[in-house]
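re: the backbone from monday

yeah here it is again, tokenized this time
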């Protein structure tokens, strides 16, 4: 295992830098996954910081991920939005993958909304659906790649954090209510986080279903764990960009292009949902 790379000082340095570049002081953070970057374009009074300018910040290399922080106002709320994230499969360490979450916490963010593109494992799910993440399986963490491994700084969170309710109940209820009100079908289920970058084999798809997962992806679980460790409330949505292929010799294949294409169909739904949640934020603030 790699030794710990970042200290509280590094998170604070990055957070202070951001504070010098914006007057906004948001408490809501949002991470936009593959294809969802467009949401940030509607932010008002936006201050934009490319990740490359923020001390220690990792830079994304994946198509569909812009790699900048957008801080501003939407639906009466002030938010800090990450337009793109970095992934473990790009070769970043777990610490690098979750560095931005620690920085957001140091900045004063207390609620983190995570979005991702995911493959649908649940046979009832269709490409274009949105799934509310009710719980997660951090498959990577279970086999020794948990982002909380290594020395623990008790100022950041406990050594053995409880994860019995990782995704906040009140926020989940708000999301369900907003979806109903907006006529959006909101699936609910368990997200399983894997490393990627290869998509799953049919045997792996069937295995993941057996484990109790409804959607699969290559992000989110690590950020969620670190956010919860630091005491943040967490809300998560998966945009189902493809139906995972569960038998060999299928005429279909899974591709990043398909993920980005379906992402486009999902964007308006995801934006409606997120806007609706921000409009009713006072109910959970
Ligand atoms: N598997 C893993 N990650 C994904 C998928 C998938 O099918 N679709 C989008 N991200």
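seq for it, each position gets an aa:
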């Amino acid at each position: 295992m790699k030794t710990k790379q970042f200290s509280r000082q590094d998170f604070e340095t990055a957070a202070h830098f951001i504070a010098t570049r914006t007057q906004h002081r948001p408490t809501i953070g949002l991470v936009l996954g593959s294809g969802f970057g467009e949401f940030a374009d509607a932010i008002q009074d936006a201050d934009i910081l490319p990740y490359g300018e923020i001390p220690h910040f990792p830079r994304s290399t994946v198509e569909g991920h812009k790699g900048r922080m957008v801080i501003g106002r939407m639906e009466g709320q002030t938010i800090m939005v990450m337009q793109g994230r970095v992934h473990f499969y790009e070769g970043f360490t777990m610490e690098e993958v979750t560095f931005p979450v620690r920085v957001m916490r140091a900045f004063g963010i207390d609620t983190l909304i995570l979005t991702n593109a995911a493959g649908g494992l649940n046979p009832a799910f269709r490409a274009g659906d949105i799934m509310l993440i009710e719980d997660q399986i951090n498959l990577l963490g279970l086999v020794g790649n948990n982002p909380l491994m290594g020395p623990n700084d008790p100022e950041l969170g406990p050594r053995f954090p409880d994860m019995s309710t990782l995704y906040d109940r009140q926020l989940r209820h708000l999301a369900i209510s907003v979806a109903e009100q907006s006529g959006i079908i909101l699936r609910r289920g368990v997200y399983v986080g894997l490393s990627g970058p290869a998509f799953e084999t049919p045997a792996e798809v069937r295995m993941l279903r057996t484990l109790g997962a409804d959607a699969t992806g290559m992000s989110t679980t690590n950020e969620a764990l670190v956010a919860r460790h630091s005491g943040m409330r967490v809300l998560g949505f998966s945009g189902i960009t493809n139906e995972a292929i569960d038998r060999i010799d299928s005429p279909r294949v899974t591709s990043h292009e398909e993920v980005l294409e379906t992402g486009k169909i999902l964007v308006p739904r995801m934006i409606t949902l997120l806007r609706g949640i921000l409009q009713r934020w006072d109910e959970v603030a």
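The radius of gyration is 18 Å. The chain has seven helices and nine strands.
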